[in-house]
Amino acid sequence: MEATGLSVVSLLIVQTLTSARPLPLSHPKSTEHSTGTVNIHRTLTASLRLSRTILQESHRLQELYRVETLLGVVLETRRELEFLPSGTVPHSRWTSLQDSERLLDMALKLPVFRAYLERLRTRERERSNGNRSNILGDLDTILLHTRDLLLLIHTQMSVVGVPEPRALSLSEEVLNHSAVWDNLSEGYLVLRGFAHYLGRVVRDLTVLLVRDRARGRGRARVLGHTSQPKRQVAQHRSFQSAHGFKRGT
To answer: What's the CA gap between 64 and 70, in Å, rounded?
Structure first.
């Protein structure tokens, strides 16, 4: 069964590589600037490795939450579509996505899931009366790793010149119900939706990495054009500040 799954993923990647025109992941030599270099191949490799780690962590936490919080109750799947970003896209559309579109989708939707996971952590702290638990520990780890993944994705966007997207709006009702059970069950839906979207992230990053290898351009690339280095560096720092990225945290 596992071998079959791998072969299907490999087929999807091959179809994607041959059906869409990739966005160049390098700048012309004449536009290089000495503000610093970014090795896009290493960044993509680190992003893919980290996304796989988060996916494993989210599956583990999802099952832990279901057993310890919901006492094994199985919930309907339809509710999650009402408030969570979707990772589902038609196959024909997915294979034709440009590199920039894949990065933008991650940059838009991962912060939404991260914000809902932070709310879930708040609810878990309240429920546990401030005591530490396995669920809280796993949430802390996933939130930190997702923060790091977002920083890597934003770095890749800066390299290819993709502008920072406007943040998606959050639903104030999510995990803010007066009924305890509604919050508990919704927490599980957030975890399940997050794991489902991470599967999409892993596939997209795999495509980006394979494309970069195919281009044979895994060398260091300069961050920013000579005409716009200050704006891109400022945009990078603005993203870090807006999402709570701090040195040493």
So the answer is: 9
Name the residue range of residue 83's domain: 19-242
Tally DSSP H helices, then E strands, for the chain: 7, 2
Instruction: Examine residue 7 and state whether it is found in any structural domain, yes or no.
Output: no
What does the alpha-carbon distance between residue 81 and residue 193 come to, in Å, rounded to a whole number?
9
Tell me the two tokens of residue 77: 């799947």
The helix (run of H) or strand (run of E) holding residue 165 is none
The total of structural domains in the chain comes to 1
Element (DSSP H or E) covering residue 128 = none
Express each pLDDT in 194-233 by its tens digit: 999 999 999 999 999 999 888 774 444 444 443 444 555 5
The pTM for the full model equals 0.73
For residue 174, which of 125, 124, 115, 126 has the smallest C-alpha distance?
115
> What 3-state DSSP class applies to 37?
strand
